[in-house]
Amino acid sequence: METQYLRTLVMAAQEGSFSKAAIKLNVTQSAVSQRTKSLESCCGVKLLDRSGAIIQPTVAGRVAIDCAQRILKLEEQMLRELRSLTDKQHLYICCTPAFGVAHLPQIVRSFTQENSSIDELMFLFDAPLQALDGLRAGEFDVAIIEHLPNIDFGGIRHLDLPDDEMVFVSAPSLEIPAGEVALSQLQQHSFIIRRAGCSCRDLLSLNLEAAGSDIDLFRKVMVLDDFNLISDEVLAGSGVTFISRSVVAKYLAAGTLREHRVAGFEHYRQRSIVSLACESPTSLKRMFMETVMRYFNIEMLA
Length: 302
Known about the structure:
Elements: H1 3-15, H2 18-25, H3 29-43, E1 48-49, E2 56-57, H4 59-85, E3 90-95, H5 97-102, H6 104-114, E4 120-125, H7 128-136, E5 142-147, E6 157-170, E7 179-181, H8 183-186, E8 190-193, H9 199-210, E9 220-223, H10 227-235, E10 240-244, H11 249-254, E11 258-262, E12 268-275, H12 284-295
Parallel strand pairs: 3-4, 3-5, 7-11, 8-9, 8-10
Antiparallel strand pairs: 1-2, 5-12, 6-10, 6-11, 6-12
Helix pairs in contact: 1-2, 1-3, 1-4, 2-3
């Protein structure tokens, strides 16, 4: 029995919905359903009651979820203890894609120059909630995420970094004036957006809802999950997007993209660096966090 199946069961019960659990786990709704069915087949009992609007654990499901949570905690402990036995200098980092594209290369260059003896350095990109889940599970040592103010850190230590500025951008060929524009001007064009679960899409949704609008009111919506593809499509004049300004700064400086703002929209999201525990001053995790803070000209407190 794979622990990811147990994690899926716990998440489905917590969220009360396969679709919401799928977003949190960064998998398809079908995968959540199939994993749950496989668990139920293995256990020989029904674990979730799907008859209502909200999924509820059965009596057997509550027993399974309680045991699953203990197993997942043991798995986290095992990973931490196994990693502590090796003499290798390793650091596992997860960050949201915008930060990875715009800032990570310079930070890594500085960090590796100061820590040339490191044996293993691993970076993964993921959405904010998945990054936090991976941190809790012991998959990462540090996470750097852009997020909305209402994110639940669940007691995990986090330090504030400068906010990330979000802007609408378009190619000059679309003839949208630079600067402040009406939302209706943007909605005359196709909109290119990342998948559900990323904070840029969540911030856009909140802005549109506050304006009494919806993403479906754009001429067409194209979902892409790679910043390079999004940039290429926008540069080609295929539509507009709402993106971290730091990701497209070089195109804005060169004049190959135009920047737009909508009055009343929130154009900033928060950014944090997150870790499970405060390490000694000589630990790789601590030194990497200090490198990130220095990059933003922030003093790392004890």
